[in-house]
Amino acid sequence: MPASFAEPLALSLRDVVVDHPVGGGVVRALDGVDLDVGAGERVALLGSSGAGKSTLLDVVAGLVRPTSGDVEVLGRRIAELGGGALRRHRSEVGVIRQAHGLPGALRVVHNVNGGRLGAWSTVRALASLIVPMGRSDVDEALGRVGLDGLADRRTGDLSGGQQQRVAVARVLVQNPELVLADEPVSAVDPRLSADVVELLCSTTEREPRRDAVLLSLHDPTLARDHVDRIVGLREGRVAFDLAAQAVDSGMLTSLYAPA
Amino acid sequence: MSRTRRSASWRALIPLSLLALTAASCAGSDDSGSDEPPGSAAAETDGTSEPVEESESADESDSPVLHIGAIPDQEPERLQRTYGLLADHLEEELADDGFTTDVEYVPVTDYSGAVTGFVVGDLDAVWFGGLTGVQAQLEVEGAQAVAQRDIDEAFTSVFIAGADTGVETIDDVAGLAALEGQSFTFGSESSTSGRLMPQSFLAEAGIDPDEDFEGQPGFSGSHDATIELVAAGTYDVGALNSQVWDDRVADGTVDETAVVEVFRTPPYYDYHWVVQPDLDDEFGDGFTEAFTEAMTALDPDDPDDAEVLELFGAGAFIETENGNYAAIEAVGRDAGLIR
Amino acid sequence: MTLTPRRRLVLIGALVVVWAIGRAGLSGVVNTSGASAFQRFWRSALSPDLSADFLSLTIEATATTAAFAVLGSALALLIGVAGALAISERAMGTGWLRRAAEVVATVPRAVHEILVALLLIQVLGFDPMVAVIAIGVPFGAVTAKVYADALDDADRSAYDGLRASGVGRLTAVAYGLVPLVRGEFVSYAFYRFECAIRSAAVLGIVGVGGLGFQLDISFESLRYDEIWTLIFALMLLSGTADAVSSWVRGPSGPSDGGRWFPVVAAVGVAWSWWQVGLDVSVLWSARTLERGPELLRDLFPPELGPGGWTELWSATVDTMSLVVVAVVVAALFGFVGAAVVRRPVIDKRSGLSAVGDGFRIVVGRLVLLTARAVPAPVWAFLFVLVLYPGIWPGAVALGVYNAGVLGRLYAEAIESQPPEPERAAALAGAGRWTRWAYGVIPGAAPRLVSLTVYRSEVMVRETIVIGVVGAGGLGQLLRDHLVARDFGAVMGVVIVLIVLAIAADALGRVIRRVLR
After folding, report:
1. Which pTM does this prediction carry?
2. Judging by beta carbons within 10 Å of its beta carbon (0-12, 13-18, 19+), is residue B264 exposed, middle or buried?
3. Closest approach of C67 to chain B, Cα-based (Å)
């Protein structure tokens, strides 16, 4: 179900092309992608490895500049951002990556605070390593992900599922307007995957309902159960873009079929 | 889990705390050991930890401390004894002149260390050799040579040889040429009687130490070490301070079946006290003079004084002045040891 | 037969060794008449001076040396962390500032601690601060390089994640990289501490106190019984430091990424500070402000000594041949030592009794520990008794000392080899040496060679240590200039030493590349 035109768009891609230089030549990772995500919408990206899911998320996050095409995120044209404006923009976009990237030696509280370091000054960030700041927000976020009272534990001592929830808590304290998640549950026990995805999607349930979630997933069932819309990617192109319930197994089979 | 981790971190503390304990206990034993006889190992410890005391006493601005030093030309134990007694004598004499000051002997490891200690101001008065004294006078503007022994006006070096080397007694400087082909050791690199003057006389005889001896010449480090190494046969021939040699022969500490004197050099000016230019500012007007008088007042008829004089191998101390060492400076410049 | 780059390297190496031995000379090397003093020294090992006075002196000196090492390591750690941030690409980006910092850091790396101490003494006198800076600055520069590499090589996902959410470089390093490398940092800090103990002992010899100072004093009167007491103290101290360092760095060490470390470090520093009575204000005392610029004026511009270029060149060539001979000695004895101390991987069927093995290993370890616990200058003093002054005593002294270090590293490298090849050779009925040749050496060789090359680079810097006691080469020349207090000429030699050290590092990189 496309977003209603009354609400502003969280992001909008028009004819986006990305070429990665490989060896002497280039590999086309995205080949003319159009995509709109409305505020408050939850969208899943499906596709086999190499279909362009990660590249698409990197483009939205402003980490990869498209070779051509227009990218507008949270009403800003990414190509025109630079320096401080780009940093500010990034701090409003929450990113969870394949490897969740939480240093195990760091205490949980610091890893959760990692979400808002972009908004903190360097001095404040370094001082917080000695005396943690913003404890109440951290505790609240940990409460929401079901990790009450674990703020002072070493992150590496937690289970894989708990660590992934810490990553979610980090996004919660960041309070971004757009959450991007690249395979957030690939390293998690299948039993726990549903919890994590549910938690991520719940970030959009606060008022005002404006935060959007864009995540890439391996598991179509997980996608169907939790998101509003599913976008299928194949060889850098959009294969389908449908409401979650409208996606059937035939579409998925052809999406994952060998080229 | 957290319990095992804690115990691991405490285990890491054990070696350190043990070390700290040992140190604490030995610092304690230090205090109790300060009434040991001078010359013992405990006295050396006092010297080693000296910089600490210095900074403390400087803060307290009690009576200022006069730091005396000496080139380490003899066995450290002997130096400890000599300068321990001398420090007592100086304290007494200076007090008689109205200067209450502690006198402390600070040991150094080598001759150039003594010069460095004087140049940076760690040492207020130093018993230098001829060469090191001139170096000190040249580097510290206004430094004064104040006193020397009676024997230092006409000091000599001796060349000694292992008894089984077949080196025969040499009659004059030219005769030193006969040492060609022997192995040879000097004392310290900066020694006047153990290196500079012997090297100068060897040069007069046409011997280049780097070319004409067996192997490179050694530097034993001190006069006593030279005697020991030649007696042990490590080197065939060595050169040293004649006063130390005569003293050890008289003591009977030299094995005269193993090592014999083969030559005594012509005389030259050697050892002397050099003092900092600002002693009067620091300790009060007339201090430099009082120091010089305290040295020259050493009286061979007084039993305590006689012991100090004997350790110095002197009959008495006499006044001296910078100008007396011009000849040494010239020889030093020739040898490239003063530049 | 075609010459592969590797074969060519081996051939050149062999020629260099032949040249170096030729340069050192083979006639008039051994001074047989010095044997009695040499023997007397070793016999005294059985009767060290254990009088209460001397023991308390020894304990005090040991504590001082340990304290110098702790304070020096602490300074090195501070410099290392700050420097690592300055030269890490991730912390600083790739701008000119980082490149400038990297160049600045190469100079102190090329300078040996004793050289720093010799110059600092001219300004600070015999102050404990001399030892702290002399250890801290060169070690800090090495540590900075190692830490920066660790930061730049660490898993970057956490760092990238932070950067992607708009976090600045420094903050991203602090939150995303430092936690990953903290254990590695602590481990390396302990390795440096182990080196600092040995270094602190050598520094005493220039007069700043501790075991080296007492060793020097006892050597002046050739009191062998005292010397042995001090050597045993050094072995105990160095052995303890080695053991603690191995434990911290080993698999059974603390596993929490070094969270306990700040406490241990703080206690150690506080105790050391008190032990040596460190007074930081000497750094800006009136005397320092006067002597510092004075020394700089004396040092610059650098000059040639009275012997001119000829003398400098000949000393440089002597130093190079000295290093080559020393490397050969160190590698040879180190290898034999490693072979001796190695735990048997062969099971009982090989016929070696367990008791015999235990004895052999303990004795071997003690010998290696003695070799590296006794400072190189002390070895030089000793070998000057039986070898005529010149290149040989210095080279042998440096070689024996480094054999102690290399033997330990070799043994670790060999023990980390998989045991299967050797077991297979043993099962095929191979004898002890054949097993080595077929089962052990082929696997371990690349690591052994690379350890040797690394150590050779260190040995180039260390030549100055043995030269200072009159054992030839640039160190001796430096000593001559210091004795004459000709600091312009001293600086001239220092520059040659720095160039030589940087060249050795570059050569080492080339050799490792060819062998890879």
Report:
1. 0.81
2. middle
3. 10
